[in-house]
Amino acid sequence: MGMTAAEKIIAAHAGKDIVKPGELVKAKVDLILGNDITAPVAIREFNKIGIDKVFDPDRVVLVPDHFTPNKDIASAEQVKMMKEFALKQGITNYFEVGRMGIEHALLPEAGLVLPGEIIIGADSHTCTYGALGALATGIGSTDMAAAMALGETWFKVPSSIKFVYRGELNEWVSGKDLILYTIGQIGVDGALYQSMEFTGPVIRSLSMDSRLSMCNMAIEAGAKAGIIEPDEITYAYLEGRAQREYRGMFSDGDAVYAQEIEFNVGEIEPQVAFPHLPENTRGISEVGEIPLDQVVIGSCTNGRLEDLRVAAGLLKNKKVHPRVRLIIIPGTQKIYQEAMKEGLMDIFIEAEAAVSTPTCGPCLGGHMGVLAKGERSLATTNRNFVGRMGHPESEVYLCNPAVAAASAVTGKISAPEEVL
Amino acid sequence: MTQLKGKAWKFGDDVDTDVIIPARYLSTSDPDELAKYCMVDADPQFFNKISSGDIMVARKNFGCGSSREHAPLSIKYAGISCVIADSFARIFYRNAINIGLPILESPEAAESISQGDLILVDLEKGLIKNETKGEKYYSAPFPEFMQEIISAGGLISYVKKQRSVNS
Fold it and tell me: Which value does ipTM take for this structure?
């Protein structure tokens, strides 16, 4: 019996020929990630273990990106603790503000996450790296602490669901829409404890930026991981970036799946997730009249160059609606710089958007775009839980960058065609 | 292992980590501080209303969302002795085991228990007794591997113990 790519990756790291769903195994990890919220708790737990050094200072990545640039004294103290730990441990991949980016935009860009690897991160959206054919999953701080000490952790081998996407993509439909639509179909626990394998001709032609935003939201269906097998697009992306040797893993033709689901993407229009769950999705034509106070384009889901280009294309020679704040956050310094070179920043500023240095801030109601009571935001982020972006009586709607940009102009949730 | 006893606090489907502990309280990692804001957006008085040993009961996908371990920490340090639900989100499940917060999957218990019922839990047997309704429910016991982590007092003590055995 064959194995899925996810099973093969776990088997290879557990020193086994075969693993089966449900099996508990110990496996080596290639990279461990923490941020300014989760790493301080992990460092405290690591210090309790009673060893001096992390298993490999080149394999631990620390990115202060959630409350940074530090929003207050308490968050500054957390980042200071992280920085001191990084310096003491000689951690090579500590990214200070100024060279920092949103972790899940930064790590792929820096070639730190590769096909066939196991990556664990104390951040739920670590599953983003599945876009590069890695088995990448979110863990908590205590797991991070133990893994920093041992270089390994335990896994329950997940069963897999295969999602096959066929047909012709409609205009303005991106990876973000495919994943929102998929979550809308299967629900926020539709892939609980499982791995979501995205495949089919549509995925094969999807850009890396779009793939990253799809895998990013696998956790929003409860999945342990999202995974796309490497192909020419992956290899082209990794060219000149990959920091280590790698070997991609592929699902066998006779691999066993818990379920196979096929979508004809021709039936999918740009999606909007209504409050307060990412599964509450509707096609843009069924949204109705939803006036907005704020629009956010950014985050580990959609703060990449492709996203900024799409937004700029729609904002060019237009102004943001008078009652709306538009906040645009490039995912990394490099994306920021590229966007400047391409003239996208001029377009944003002329449209009267606020542009920020990379930060996760608004996505989790941290800073740089916190909502007041009763306010409503449309965002390219990944979660719209109660109080996610601020006051518990505020609302968050999720969408792709094109819908976000168009809506910032009209002042209400709108299809991109409305501003062309 | 100990018997747990307490009053049930009932919640619904998909209780997410932003509800358990909103991000605006995450600029600290002090568990006693986090405990004060446990479930604050669902019920601002939750921390003041519960008694030590009380039990949280919810429906499907409890703990979905963020990897923040602050969520199970805030529940544990608020004095909740265990969480019973139809199902748990994966990272929350792991985090709870790792910090030694007992959690039980039992769709039957999660459906039948009402707000305020007096609940007794025997973790070793996976037995949940509803004293108020005179009912019994069962939950699958933890796999052996996890029992070792729990009986060691959480993952860090387990790793410490393993390291001293290996060296």
Answer: 0.95
